[in-house]
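Entry 12.
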Amino acid sequence: MKHTNARATAALILSKLRSGQGSLSTHFDALPSNDNEGLVRELCFGCCRFYQELDFLIGRLLGKPLRNKDADIACLMFAGIYQIRHLRIPDHAAVNETVAATGTLGKPWAAPLVNAVLRNYIKKQGELDAAIASAADFIRYSHPDWLLAAIKQDWPDGWEQILLANNCRPPMTLRVNLARMSRDSYLESLQSTHIEAFPGSLSNASVYLVKPCAVQDLPGFLAGLVSVQDEASQLVPGLMNLKSGLRVLDACAAPGGKTAHILESEQSLTKMLAVDASANRLIGVTENLSRLGLSADVRCGDAAKPEKWWDGIQFDRILLDAPCSATGVIRRHPDIKLLRHPGDLENLAQRQFQLLVALWPCLVPGGELLYTTCSVLRQENEAVIKAFLQQQTDAKYAAIAADWGVKCTFGRQLLPDREGSDGFYFCRVTKN
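Predicted 3D structure (tokens):
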């Protein structure tokens, strides 16, 4: 990307997201490394996180909407107001740098308009805050109205806490390789390098950093003593009843955190197969395993078409971390608010059901399948399991005995916690 002005770069990325092009991850991967990269990321994450709020404010401040071909200017205004409203950048600097970005975008005609809108926001901030406070919930909580309605319906007593957690910055959480080191010992290593941290309460391998840091600054990271992984997904191996000699399949494995954790948790498996449909993402799986000194059979393939990659020998355990709406990890991927649409849920639920049906013959009688998603929506979780159990006569629901999360009709649900784990769903099914 040729633009070096951080505000202009962020505006271009946001305008592409608004038109359905790519994701924050794909756009960030294409960014050249430079001094502005951190600010670009901050602006993009923040504008996505508070998109509905910012859109409301721009609508109040503009006399009429900008033309579609000037979506980059609209997004530049988003970035400008986000800086003033949510960052510690002085107002005058935020205004001046944002106005200057109109030239970088090749639209100097927009400079007076952007200047007027931002200065008007500063002047009317109290009045606009009051307008937000009395606005519809989807504006006040900055979520798409359809998604807010779905979360309210599924969690009538917890919807507000979910939305507030979604709008927080996510913690950086680590998974200590307990096969190599105790959590207490690793916490001491962090303390000796002046990195503040504390143990998690759900997983005995989890560590939360008080402030995020670069992975290369973590003691023992390159040596495989620790990995970055949210605490919720660290619960997976403990729910799989692992033991020596088992054949295990991780059916949608990338980026490989759960595959690695399974191998760390049980080092005497007969077989560990990690399958994913994305060859590019499997590179990350291989790199993770290499760093950790672990080995698995890593194959590229569609989990819904096991005939393409399966040798016919059944597995004792299957992990299906199914593709989903990712509504439990919005705080980590706030572009979900722009990229997801109501119709996606039905398509995803169908895909999840198809994956369960396709993988079921791969499980040995007496074996166990653990179904997980990072969604908080029942349509992708309990409803999928219910439909599968109704169709598959040799499948039996196995309750999870635990004191964390919410007990559902089928499985358990962790809801996103502002100071803890992401939203995550777990359900165990056994084969008669």
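Annotation: The chain has 17 helices and 13 strands. The first strand starts at residue 172 and ends at 176.
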